[in-house]
Amino acid sequence: MNESQEMVKLTINNIPIEVPKGTKIMQAAQTIGIDIPHLCYHEDQRIKAHCRLCSVEVTGKKRLLAACSTEVWEGMDVHTDTQIVRDTQVSILQLMLANHHKDCLSCPRNQNCDLQRLCSRFNILESHLPSVVKEEPRIETNPSIVRDPSKCIRCGRCIRACKDVQGIAALTYAGRSSDIVVTTAFNKPMEATDCILCGQCSLVCPTGAIVEKDDTQKVLDALQDNTKHVIVQVAPSVRVALGDAFGLEPGAIVTGQMVTALKLLGFDKVFDTNFGADLTIMEEGHEFLHRLNNDGVLPMMTSCSPGWVNYMEKHFPSCIDHLSSAKSPMSMFGAIAKTYYAQQAGLKPQEIVTVSIMPCTAKKFEAARPEMGRDGYQDVDIVLTTRELIKLIKYVGLSIGKLPENDFDSPLGLASGAGAIFGATGGVMEAALRTVYEKVTGKTLEKVEFMDVRGFDGIKEATIHLPGRDVRIAVAHTLKNARKIMEQVKKGTSPYDFIEIMACPGGCIGGGGQPIGTTNAIRKQRIAALYEIDRTLPIRKSHENPDIQTLYQDFLGEPLSERAHELLHTHYHKVDKPYQFD
Ligand code: SF4
Ligand code: SF4
Ligand code: SF4
Ligand code: FES
Q1: What is the structure's pLDDT at 578?
Q2: Which of 136, 152, 123 is nearest to 51 (CA)?
Q3: CB distance 555 to 332 below 8 Å
Q4: How far is the CA of 181 from the centre of ligand 3 (A)?
Q5: Nearest residue to 67 (alpha-carbon basis) of 75, 79, 55, 59
Q6: Which one of 89, 114, 514, 548 is CB 3.0 to 4.6 Å from 206, fit for a cystine?
Q7: For this structure, is 366 an active site residue?
Q8: Residues 297-326: pLDDT tens digits?
Q9: How many secondary structure helices (H) and strands (E) does the chain include?
Q10: Mean pLDDT value of segment 343-354
Q11: Are 313 and 320 in contact (CB under 8 A)?
């Protein structure tokens, strides 16, 4: 707290407190352990004050005030649990329930739903009002996101996430008064709008109205099929987020316990997407050097975030040549698993099922792209979000914090620290610079941390001094920030040579498939955990990973070789009509 900050004295439920001027009643109450119920409020969003569930009584005021939007004042006397406050809150919840499809048992957000939790808190066991719920089907037209309008409480959180964080505004209010709904323009399927399937709306939705497409049953079926060899890869950001759902501190590192859980679930091999990240650095780093030395298209832009790639294809198609052709770590891993690993294991690609655990709903879409496979099979067969993995782990009754630790399997399980930091904004750039610097200078990089690209700023810039050339780089997270950079690229005025963009706030650690309850404060704790993993690993540069070196010696040849191009690179294109999904 700033010492010179003006303080305000007030009482809440007769408890005297002192808080900085400008504090809202809701936060003031939190300082003394009082949780005022709320639904439209989210700590990372602009205040909306729509739902009025946070209504409180303030002495001298005729009407109840919204605790989320009302600043405290000197001498204020607040009461959060009087009869009128309780009656108001119960009435609001009852009205919501009257307009709500109450099939909690079959709802994806069962046991993880703010509306359900608040009804339980207020001992609302059934709704007393006649149901006015409009029967509307779930909208499941794409591989990533499912909408269920009958579960929407019109809190507006999804609208704010899409507009204020991503700058896209694919979701909006439509209609008036009691007919107001949250929908897309002309009520089109999300994939037919400007939506890039990032899932940030699903992360903030307090109910089951926007959720990820559930593919857990597909994985359970594959695990039961004795004719299939089922392998799993796990993204770097999952191991620092999974613990949240099991009561561990945000940012808890549960790598070894997560491997154990996956082995207990029955996967034949448990591998690491970080290995794919090291491979991506090999290809992307060499692609950058090739462009730099051969008057290629610059700035080159990273392409491992599928939400960002979708954004580029839909919103800046004229700039697609700036995207690196290197596939994402997930898809590179899948391609190597179905070729190199299949050879080693004596299996046909069709006998292998590749499952990916990702922080991201857009990864489900990436895996389904026709470009991500060959000879009639996909690089990655099934993508689960972190949330779906949590569901599976709970399904078999495991508690992550108590499991013994295990190591990833070989040979696609060994990764460098550079691979680990891919999950944080700036991580791909830092990992690439560690390799690019050594390739260009031929010298050992002693200090591997590039602090200029770390941190939570929306756009970070730096200049890297290489022999004969200064390389100007930029790092951006969220598409609202990306747009600022893209306007320059489109106009041809970009000052940069190499740009990293991640669609989600904080990078993958804040992805749209991460545990419900993710906030920016939690994102920062996860980023710190990834840097801690990197700091403690013996190998911190992708090109020093011995299993990556063996892969090139025995199978791929050189980075950017013909075989590397065939398996590890792809192309992107303008999206002028909606994708069609089965
Ligand atoms: S959204 Fe919540 S309250 Fe509604 S059905 Fe699902 S779990 Fe129940
Ligand atoms: S998935 Fe992303 S882009 Fe699409 S509506 Fe949700 S927040 Fe907006
Ligand atoms: S979809 Fe979810 S986040 Fe959006 S308004 Fe409805 S309940 Fe709120
Ligand atoms: S939480 Fe305050 S009005 Fe909705």
Answers
A1: 58
A2: 152
A3: no
A4: 9
A5: 55
A6: 114
A7: yes
A8: 999 999 999 999 999 999 999 999 999 999
A9: 19, 19
A10: 96
A11: yes
